[in-house]
Protein 1
Amino acid sequence: MYYGEKRVENPIRWGMVGGGRGSQIGYIHRSAALRDFNFDLVAGAFDIDPERGKDFGKQLHVDPDRCYPDYKTMFAEEAKRPDGVQAVSIATPNGMHYEVCKAALEAGLHVVCEKPLCFTSEQADELVKLAEEKHRVVGVTYGYSGHQLIQQARQMIKNGDLGEIRVINMSFAFGGYNFKIEDKVPSAKWRFDPSKAGPSFALGDVGTHPLFIIEAMIPDMKIDNLMCTKRSFVEGRELEDNAFVIMNLKGSENVQAGAQVYCWASSINSGARHYHKIRVVGSKASLEWDDERPNQMLYEIEGEPSRVLERGAGYLTDEARVEDRIGGGHAEGLFEAWSNLYARFAVAMADADKGAYGDFWYPDVKAGAQGIKWIEKCVESADKGSAWVDYE
Amino acid sequence: MYYGEKRVENPIRWGMVGGGRGSQIGYIHRSAALRDFNFDLVAGAFDIDPERGKDFGKQLHVDPDRCYPDYKTMFAEEAKRPDGVQAVSIATPNGMHYEVCKAALEAGLHVVCEKPLCFTSEQADELVKLAEEKHRVVGVTYGYSGHQLIQQARQMIKNGDLGEIRVINMSFAFGGYNFKIEDKVPSAKWRFDPSKAGPSFALGDVGTHPLFIIEAMIPDMKIDNLMCTKRSFVEGRELEDNAFVIMNLKGSENVQAGAQVYCWASSINSGARHYHKIRVVGSKASLEWDDERPNQMLYEIEGEPSRVLERGAGYLTDEARVEDRIGGGHAEGLFEAWSNLYARFAVAMADADKGAYGDFWYPDVKAGAQGIKWIEKCVESADKGSAWVDYE
Amino acid sequence: MYYGEKRVENPIRWGMVGGGRGSQIGYIHRSAALRDFNFDLVAGAFDIDPERGKDFGKQLHVDPDRCYPDYKTMFAEEAKRPDGVQAVSIATPNGMHYEVCKAALEAGLHVVCEKPLCFTSEQADELVKLAEEKHRVVGVTYGYSGHQLIQQARQMIKNGDLGEIRVINMSFAFGGYNFKIEDKVPSAKWRFDPSKAGPSFALGDVGTHPLFIIEAMIPDMKIDNLMCTKRSFVEGRELEDNAFVIMNLKGSENVQAGAQVYCWASSINSGARHYHKIRVVGSKASLEWDDERPNQMLYEIEGEPSRVLERGAGYLTDEARVEDRIGGGHAEGLFEAWSNLYARFAVAMADADKGAYGDFWYPDVKAGAQGIKWIEKCVESADKGSAWVDYE
Amino acid sequence: MYYGEKRVENPIRWGMVGGGRGSQIGYIHRSAALRDFNFDLVAGAFDIDPERGKDFGKQLHVDPDRCYPDYKTMFAEEAKRPDGVQAVSIATPNGMHYEVCKAALEAGLHVVCEKPLCFTSEQADELVKLAEEKHRVVGVTYGYSGHQLIQQARQMIKNGDLGEIRVINMSFAFGGYNFKIEDKVPSAKWRFDPSKAGPSFALGDVGTHPLFIIEAMIPDMKIDNLMCTKRSFVEGRELEDNAFVIMNLKGSENVQAGAQVYCWASSINSGARHYHKIRVVGSKASLEWDDERPNQMLYEIEGEPSRVLERGAGYLTDEARVEDRIGGGHAEGLFEAWSNLYARFAVAMADADKGAYGDFWYPDVKAGAQGIKWIEKCVESADKGSAWVDYE
């Protein structure tokens, strides 16, 4: 492998729904998808204002004829072309994810979708089923999971370096919603509107990120039951701005039965930026990682000095190092994490087109569905007075 | 004030029960009590082996005639002397705290006692009552609370610098008991024996430390209800080696009603030393402190750069700075924290002897009783299947 | 501005010399240049093996007819096309920089070149002159200087937030060359061969990076004289693997006369990754930055708590914030720093083509020449027995 | 050994010169000397005001008859007593160190003295000679060197864990004198008066601290030559407030010939507290230590993850662990470092009284003399225009 190696023979013809001018998330999708020539951006329904979308598409070198006013037109028109899009990324407001994702799958397209995939488990199950029937890839952009050191952690855990997992203490607890920001910044308003944001704010918006990271680190992790307590500290919010969840895990290859996960999801952690931290404690050693300093991971073997593992270092596993875009010491950031995911999405899509299924992981439709289910279970627990509820 | 200023006119005549040769805890008691000439060590029942105790006492410049074989003899004999002890510190195994403390109070002595004061609320209530009746001071050595920056936090919270408190995330989760250490180190065995350690290991041994620190920081904090989940990850232990507690707080001057405290107490956090961290989140700003780096405290106002407050700095409050033993920049450690507590114990004792009661705080008999009650409530919750239980 | 906004009306037609398959530096050039559609990669002489170069170009969507066997052919052939390249990036071994840069300028092309631009001041002066005559832009990839917080520092210093600059303590001292790596890794060999690497290893390879960063932070900085001590700790090396330089500065608007810069450049700092740290001390406050954690900068006002400034935060200056590619809290890395530089190169090139010269900075041909001169002066000092030598 | 074990059979009868009420340095001397019953404070000339000194002595349980108006009277009167002082600590202003130290040695007393011992090498040589003739111990309170991890570093270097030492980068660069503090705080004025402070401010006041630490870490270290540049950034100061020194080392067992030491000593490092940092780079690995976080030391082996060594940890050497006053994880501070030194002083004094000389190190009269010589050589270099000067 070499730095930024192209992973697929033929770039995947790719379109975007949403993510137009000024969109932060649209930009990171494009940066990640295009940098290694695994995708070609050939079409888009970038904007609800068609002219603005067309103008923006032009800047991106997209043929104006393939800049569509909406996703339905795009899917219909592209289907008529021999060189029509093969994959589409969805960067719309949350409330549209489900319908666009469903339509894309039905149109035979691979999908990359922002989380949450949808709002209910029924919807999620439907998407899982549809993806399977259509043999299409659905990649979900749990972007932080693409950091190289998450891959490193996954292999160390598999190798038994930590012993059996016993406790996970994690948080994604940012601070900017400590006051009624939605009165000041109108674009924040939908986040507390259940019809647009689904049944949760903090759990869904940030809590699902560390959840997926530990699923990526510990693929055999199974939740047995959970308890959630949530509330809004800022008056007048319909959805929670702060939540805490405790999960008991089932025993499995790398997990001691009864292992516990503590998860703090918050938007009112005054003064914090992400506070997105994960500590995985095993019977022999622990790992600790923080998305704000993603190039370092603490590795603490009981009875030995703490070690700091560095991204890009020669002592990492080959599977982690293959994703170096630059040598160790140099800082990588979130764009590289997304790029790693998009590279895997491309390979998965190319494989799927050939009917092949490579043995590697990425946040897929089931991971997306798992997030939805987890939110539902958390809400169920909270609604029952923070009672313990079985997960299956 | 000046560095290490003596706080009482006449040093308090002081004795020790336990804390003999080789005792780590005995040493820190003496270091803290004697350094500023607020106490004179004049008697002791240092050791269950009287000769060894006498020999040790000699090294400490204690008159051999006042080195006693046991605490009962000491209290009886000292009572006969015009210059008998006025105060006694208890540094015995936990199982003896209650009886020695009670006997000391009954003998009219002030007491400094290791936590836990006792094993049950009934015992604790009895000690509270006895101390009141006898007008005696009982100081409990929640040593970390004596760090200067805890005092600083207390005043910042009182001043409203954080706004209303909403969330506290705290832990004391060390790592050395990740394997069955009690089979290897016999002196660790009693910790998992309920008859010697009380109804809990992790909660009582370490969890009560951050609990008292937040009580010290936020004196008006009142627990409404709580939920505890605890277990032993290492097989064959009668008491938990890991626990998690969530508390809902009542509204009060500095606390928003419904504020939550998350507390992780553990002895199996592989590779960690103390992992004794406290983050207090208010509506405007947060504070974060870690006992392993006690000279720094993070102060994060939402929307501004994070600040690091330094012990001894000129910008701290006068009440915090009065306890400087050396200028800022120089590292203080746990011995200074204990010394601060002992200095306050001395003043409280001298005040009590005069019938005066100064307006300052220290971990007193009620703080000790609160710890016992909290453990009981946690155990009650856990025994009910980690149900929510009312605190009062 | 919005995230990743395109900065030039028409993308600049761009080619590469070197930077073929497997090249780390070629990859970062492309990632930075292409991500925002400010450049189109339309030609290249990627590889000394023309077939391999052509094959690689294909992956990059470059017309095979415009994949050339060498830079001379490329410049000649592209000059014949109406849509020929307007700019070229040079990612060859150091020994070729000068001739390619010169040829490109003579061919009327804008240039982006790796440092060092060349090996001697004579060459550098020639390039400066040539660039002026031809009205062409030469951007030098002092990549770290593109980090947002460097821009922030520049403005804070200009604003007087630090007072007058008195001391700068800086280092770029990595660790991997602590043993004779060139015997093990053949590609490291040229670095110690003066005919290929120029008159210096550590000073030129890493020392010029912090040098340019402080020039970017303090544009009015002027070196008065300097002293350098250098040597090879690993036997058999012709060029130094470790050096130290002290510079006295002249007085200027933001600099106190007699201010001093201490610079440690090393490749034998065992166990360190970059150790690329810069502390700028003013009469009122200091700034401290480390390229391994580029999203944070320490800001320490004397008498106040230390502050940590965060990339992307709302309290940064507008000029710094304009380069956000993602919101604060999210980690950016070296690729974003390079992307910022390439965006400025694009604007400078587009301006130059219009005969306009915008009021903004980037590492230009004079910055490149300054690095060469600095190395020469350091070598001169070292050769004179580490004597002080005047800079002008 | 056990926590705080008494090291000498009979406590040493001890007196103080200076260090009266309000003295920060007097307090740390007493705290360190008395805590382990290795010294008895029996006499003192605490204060230039005899009554105030007597009153203060009373608080310290010193017989009023043995509280003297001045050191001469003390030495004379105590000499007449069979139980007169055996050792004396000098905590006066710098200008008196030499005469009191000399008088004490002539009176046959052991001495503990603040650095600097004196102002000139002639004086230092005289004290060295006198101490030898009288077979008396002179301990110099380079207090930071007593931290446990310094001992650990010494042994790791001796064991060859770092390979041959090549580079040391160190600083003690505090910030409070960035403005003309001596106009505001009269007690700071003497520091810039050569008649009271000697020939240097920053070099002597802070620079000698890291110097002694590396001497303690690398006992076979020998300076070959050095270069110093120094100046006052704040106008009107007679002595330097900022200095930089480069030293070349001779080859020795643990040091590669030509190894270099970089030392920044400053009082104008705005916003910094101590900035007292030492990085020792060997051919295989490096150590890094900072007095503001003295319980941690970075240990970086090239090619492996960085490690953080913790004070009190079980993996430290026995020689380091013997000085534990409390278990690992708990923070020790500067008082423990001083206590470690005083315990060694006591043993050295008791040994000397028996004519025995134990094989252990402490900052002795030669270390004190070395500091004086180093300052002189630095001043010599600076006075010659920052020329290189031979050390021997």
Protein 2
Amino acid sequence: MKVAIIGTGLIGGSMALSLRKKNFANTIYGVEQNEVNARRALERKIVDEILPVQDAVAKADLTIISVPVNAAEKMILPILDSVENQVVFDVGSTKSSLCNIIKNHPNRGRFVATHPMWGTEYSGPDAATESGFEDKTVVICEKGKTDKDALELAKKVYGILKMKIVYMNAEAHDIHAAYVSHISHITSFALANTVLEKEKEESAIFEMASGGFESTVRLAKSNPDMWLPIFQQNRENVLDVLNEHISQLKKFRSCFEKDNYDYMRTLIENANKIKKIIH
Amino acid sequence: MKVAIIGTGLIGGSMALSLRKKNFANTIYGVEQNEVNARRALERKIVDEILPVQDAVAKADLTIISVPVNAAEKMILPILDSVENQVVFDVGSTKSSLCNIIKNHPNRGRFVATHPMWGTEYSGPDAATESGFEDKTVVICEKGKTDKDALELAKKVYGILKMKIVYMNAEAHDIHAAYVSHISHITSFALANTVLEKEKEESAIFEMASGGFESTVRLAKSNPDMWLPIFQQNRENVLDVLNEHISQLKKFRSCFEKDNYDYMRTLIENANKIKKIIH
């Protein structure tokens, strides 16, 4: 099968590497505006050829849009205008806004709204890896609006990537993504800023940084070009979760202020219930 | 050398396993009040024998106190009362309070205040591991108040554990620990509570949880028996950092409320500077 990958970064590049390795994609066309990334995508054999977007889509059986969510919104209508029997996926971290833009498009059925729930704090073709998606979940939204053959192709692709498929409407996806992904990035950015502020005074502080700190702060390395449009598109949900998170932190603060360590124990014991979910 | 390990959990147990493997400790006495943990520590050959605290300290050349920081405070004076030429370390996550309690003790010189900066979200002898400390930092406080031979022994032990030694006064340690360790636990507990609150309504949410969420929330599994006394002893510093962290989160909130994504980009780009520190 011929596959076009629009955006040869962490997600698109990883999908390309994996689909080629599993002999699903025999030709991969890349679309990449960044010249350095385009060169690296060719050097790493992530793609066979770099083409303009319209040429890549026309030649491919399957087009995967793996650019920041604001860029995906700008290109989705002309891409859908140009397809006939081909299939188009996006892989973005927000779903409502994009699904809404295309809802009345005559080729809506050729499109599959997907969100493979894997990533790292790194970006670009050099961050791409063959096996990142394995055993993770992919969300497919609005499956009823997708043609049967296009949905089957999505199931096949994500099966090859060894992902577990979950179906959800776009609004539910965006709420859940705010809780299990977007807020983690905000807290990590804010934690990095908290500590970097202090570090101006005390450079010795980071000699002590260990695994626990690294774990909570690693997402703070994430690329603003990817995350700002996500936050912007999912504003309402992220703001709700952020408000809830601030109020949870204030409960801890109040325990300190009142020396109420019994209630702090209750808060910690409740947090420990995450053990049942994250093993 | 004969070593007594008071508290055969994650830290004490890991030190015992490593010091035995490196042939530094040929006999290890364990002190453990929890019967299940005592049995597991024997079964895993973390310790050779379980003894009452006074017997273990009397028989050992080196005693390592690896119990929660509140329990360490309760036992430190009788232990120091009983030592002659032996050496005693603690390994707790706070240093000022303990150092203050013993500051005028005639055997103060036999004591080394240490904090090996490694741990996981798990506890107990089954969580102990041979090589956890490697390449991490250990902080030694108030080295000037420690006898020369006792300090040399600490350097030897942490050298065997392949840790990088940093010297600091106890107050500076506690401030830095609040920034690079204690606050990470608070944010993680609060994040878990934020998401668990939502999960009451929507159980599907966790099907989507991926690496990023797991990374920021894993510390929320940590044991309150260990962490509450740390927070309590380091109250002032943790409260300062928590206030700063809440105000950093409020900056993000304000950006959402005002749709000010330019300033949100500045906040994220600033957070990205953590790359220079955490690789």
Protein 3
Amino acid sequence: MLECACIHKVQYYETDQMGVVHHSNYFRWFEEARTELLEKAGLGYHEMEALGIVVPVLSIACDFKSSAKYGQTVAIIPTVEAYTGLRLEVSYQVVDAKTGDLRAAGRSKHAFLDSAFRPSPLPKTHPEVDALMRRLLVKS
Amino acid sequence: MLECACIHKVQYYETDQMGVVHHSNYFRWFEEARTELLEKAGLGYHEMEALGIVVPVLSIACDFKSSAKYGQTVAIIPTVEAYTGLRLEVSYQVVDAKTGDLRAAGRSKHAFLDSAFRPSPLPKTHPEVDALMRRLLVKS
Amino acid sequence: MLECACIHKVQYYETDQMGVVHHSNYFRWFEEARTELLEKAGLGYHEMEALGIVVPVLSIACDFKSSAKYGQTVAIIPTVEAYTGLRLEVSYQVVDAKTGDLRAAGRSKHAFLDSAFRPSPLPKTHPEVDALMRRLLVKS
Amino acid sequence: MLECACIHKVQYYETDQMGVVHHSNYFRWFEEARTELLEKAGLGYHEMEALGIVVPVLSIACDFKSSAKYGQTVAIIPTVEAYTGLRLEVSYQVVDAKTGDLRAAGRSKHAFLDSAFRPSPLPKTHPEVDALMRRLLVKS
């Protein structure tokens, strides 16, 4: 699972005047980890889009536990929690890469759509992508 | 309640290559509406920080119902759902400003801290800010 | 010219831990003002894209004179400096909306392309858009 | 010099509806490369801030040559062009990490200030930081 961790160095432009990372960036880090997970599984999200699959966010949430700061590096660990062929659910842990301190924990739900934003049941429309998603689910 | 709506014109830099507003921006819009609500109540968030109060986000979530697009304007309607003197909870509705179509609904939880990030119970530390928050809760 | 000023309230998410607006946001503000200028002239940028015209940035620059801060509002004043039918040049002044203090001054160059990113000489391809751009140039 | 290249994978949230990276992100990438250059030289920018040195951007500019896209990785190569003890000038080349294609070229100017935003002549106030900056200038 740790192999799926996405390493992200906190950037100055991600901080706000509270002196910590602005909370909206955690959702960008989730995306970074989610797309890297797909890529490591063998199918980059840009390749999914090229196949005519779009995977918008239906809902997303995050609990903030401690503040990530500039000068630190975080690891974002994504886990595929559910996959139905039409829907995907992923959870995330953001930890300090050095200390392991938990920064945040979150979860996102997604739909698989075609390029006209209609539901695209992967087992029928893209069996090879379906197989890849099932493998990701089992491994998590 | 509609008086509290924050009007936001979708900007090009808020879109992504899916052709819609990137989901992370909704959390920025929530902040825009939340801080405008405080300001209209008589105390801008920059004035709260000047008083030594910081109000970080403890948790935040959003359900996405339909896509906001470039060329559209949204109204973000914040409602104070709970206030305890130490904690604050706000919900948000994002609707298209013209059609009223629901784009997203969300919720955030916050703590009141002092500038050293220690809990700051407003009834004791800042009774005038506490009174303002109570009025906001009742009005919602 | 002042009618073209775009009013922008500084947002918390635009600040960084230096306690001022992060410089990258000024380029977003330029875009806000540039697209609002087009819209006020009668053609929103989303309508230009719908006509098959894209107007990417070829170069952009900004001199920072003083720091915009959270709690302040800025006015961004765009001026069309040059228009050739194929190229556009716009300058920007960012001033504090209350005091008039100059925050920044910038300039951007753009090309008119078709949706396949090939040059689109507006006098030939879209004479009505060409006429609008010429009027904007004269007014500035 | 290539050792100083900062490798950045294009993120989905950095794209806009033109299907390419939004131009404002290049200035964030410059910052990423500039701060990594300092860090590799032995002094992270967060350590400079801890010493009471802030280094705001006085001016910045970028020429865009070709579009970086999602699914690509870029290398940002910073070069210290000038250093006077009070001022710093850095240039940047953004190239595709695989093909070497030039995406953009830019330049930024900075001042060294103390935490009250007054000029801080490094040779007097922080000779060890001054020495490090001089080494960076020579190496470039």
Protein 4
Amino acid sequence: MTAPSPPRGFEEQEFEARAERLQAGMAAAGIDLLLLTTEPDVRYLSGFDTPFWHSPTRPWFLLLPALGPPAAVIPEIGAPAMAATWVTDIRTWPAPVPADDGVTLLATAIRELVGVRGTVGVPMGPETHLRMPLADWSRLRASIPEMHVVDATPTVAAVRMVKSAPEIAKIRHICHRAGDAFDALADIAGEGVELSSVFRRFRIDLLERGADDVPYLVGGAGPGGYADVISPPTDEPLRPGDVLMLDTGAVHDGYFCDFDRNVAIGRADDAVRRAYDTLHRAVDAGLAAIQPGARCSGLFTAMAAVIEGDGYRAGNVGRFGHGLGLQLTEWPSHTRTDHTVLRPGMVITLEPGLTIAPGRTMVHEEDVLVLADGAELLSRRAPREMPVI
Amino acid sequence: MTAPSPPRGFEEQEFEARAERLQAGMAAAGIDLLLLTTEPDVRYLSGFDTPFWHSPTRPWFLLLPALGPPAAVIPEIGAPAMAATWVTDIRTWPAPVPADDGVTLLATAIRELVGVRGTVGVPMGPETHLRMPLADWSRLRASIPEMHVVDATPTVAAVRMVKSAPEIAKIRHICHRAGDAFDALADIAGEGVELSSVFRRFRIDLLERGADDVPYLVGGAGPGGYADVISPPTDEPLRPGDVLMLDTGAVHDGYFCDFDRNVAIGRADDAVRRAYDTLHRAVDAGLAAIQPGARCSGLFTAMAAVIEGDGYRAGNVGRFGHGLGLQLTEWPSHTRTDHTVLRPGMVITLEPGLTIAPGRTMVHEEDVLVLADGAELLSRRAPREMPVI
């Protein structure tokens, strides 16, 4: 039986708490005003929910002062949707107006909220970008020349990394729906089925099981492993002995799952079974290493020890997992050099990968919640032995 | 009967021609090297195709010198997929490495391709953003202090706006598939059906009809019009007298359609019928105004004349249509101030909107190819009278 969906949206207190946590971080970092421009950052703080971010035409700005609620400086087309959020200070212009697409309005709002000498925090570090034309950013800087701009990435990341109970419920829900779809993979994949057809049927199956959307679906198939883990499908039919991997980021109410499954078509040779077993034990090692106070670098080391102990080289993904939430991938990264400390409420993936043979790779991925006393799997764990369908 | 899909991908000559057109524009603008960072720009020039852009973790760089093919500076995880394109100069680093996520490698490539005093063009104008951390951009600038950076938006836009025959075939194809789905809307929508269910069924229907994905689906429903044209659906059931609008950006092989349909549930009152008729005639006026040499501002004026002549105010969208291609919306915009000259091969939408009553709006949209002697509708035209389902 399918679990009921958690309620959509969040209570206003959730957004107030997010603002207060951000403001505590701003105070510690000496930031007077936070400027957010990307979909996940704006949505996190405001609840503003629209697929319209697909259109690159219009910039959107959300400002959080040191005290009090945020102010939105947005295109007129977004006013009704923003008015449905907890944000009440909504300033609009009739975008697109390339000659001045919100720059003057934004500068006015900044001056009003923080003066001309304020310290404005903008996410400009790892995993961020500024979603506005670079020339407009230069114009904004020039129009408030004494504005001091600092990197707000650590402030935003520290808050967004730790999920609230309602956020976790949404991620758990979409993980379960995707797990159901993976469990039914034998219904849509098998010898002779084109890989592109498997992708299409899997996407439809996820929607029918209640996913809002399936923005991310990649995978591969090949004899003894696949060459590549980020490509769209080919029209090649699956053949006996192929390893099929699907990796999906499906969404419920804005929150992603991100995990994969590996299955063998018809039969699995020993090299493939061994690689699967190694990766399964690497995930075990990652799970065992999760506790508050542990570091992402420690998770990496624990997983790498299993892989290297079995004589494999790591794959080409560059890390063994990452944060998960409003984005398919978020801070932190499980690498040798990311020493982020795990805290209860963080949602991460464990994603060890290895090279089976030149050009043949395998990746396992599970989604995990960090608890006060360990870890909770949000994705239903992959079978211990490689499934053959 | 469903038309067969056009072939996927492009011949290598297509990419060579794109590079040569960009290089001609670069020469005219005094640009020695073009630096591209976003999915559509990188895909346009290289053919690099991956949903992995959903992960914000890693930056991707593509460099086009004044002569010859482009060079890719990308994370190692993308090497197999990039090697499948026409790009042969592929330089990788094991991202993510926040301490130096490609900056040194990129700086080295820039110095090698153009020296330390070259003029580097970067899209930084309307509808663009720089998809890399702003702090890394500053580091790059600091590491090549004599590098001259100019805005490449006009150069890139002028080339991308005019589509090749294979590009047009992909857009036409997805327009037809979406048109078929819209024609079957009565099968999935009607009195008592929740709006969220209509969205879900429509998305599934589009996938079953062959769309690769449906990244963009918005709409609204309400008595006498809808309040908002960019929101996701509510769980409210459709009621007699509601106007239902769905607007979709479905994708075939990377290329979008973008058009909508309005239908009435059970019955349509006179005010709604009149608004529908006005918008239909506004699209007629837009179509009649399309010819090479005409300007986007002229299309706006032609459509606005019909809307204002019927006594309406324009809606809150800010424009009456836009370019279409690898992005849901691209340059140009049909506004009073965008004087872009139409050229054969441009694919645009006509999207007049009006306010029926306070908080009640209606928008029509069709997709159109600019021909040497007029226009070809790529979307099957909406019925002249408002359909009632």
